[in-house]
Amino acid sequence: MDRSQKEALVTSMNGVFDTASSVVVTHYSGLNVAEITELRSRMRAAGAQFMVTKNRLVRRALEGTKMEGLSSLFEGPTAIAFSDDPVMPAKIAVNFAKENKKLIVLGGTLDDKVLDTTEVKALAQLPSLDEQRAIIIGLVQAPATKIAGVLAAPAGQLARVLGAQGAKGEAA
Fold this sequence. Notes:
Elements: H1 3-19, E1 22-27, H2 33-45, E2 49-52, H3 55-62, E3 78-83, H4 88-99, E4 104-110, E5 113-115, H5 117-125, H6 129-171
Antiparallel strand pairs: 1-3, 1-4, 2-3, 4-5
Helix pairs in contact: 1-3, 4-5
């Protein structure tokens, strides 16, 4: 990799660290190409990315960004997962690490807050951005459905009472 390619990579990574909602840092030592490809495809399907990093270049790219606190995690064979959705990189990385013990989650960030391993695992337990939107829509729609049910209930009760009175009159 020549100097211009390194500069382009640092600039690109600097943009990632400035714009991504969350970044998860992992050790991938021992993963083979098929396993990394599987992890990348899972990330891509969820709108996230997984990238093997060059530690020295990433530390340089982190300088001056909101995620600068991550620089101490970049030692050894590291890779990052990142996305605009704050939950998906953590969720996919943690789930993949449960299936494959060769992937180790080191930490990450959520906006400008540096997270340790346990905080990343807790973040992975949260619903994704799309799931959160669905929950909110369900909560907004629920009162309207309940109001319609309450308004329809008296008419239904009246019909049942009249039906019972009519059945009582026919029986007599």
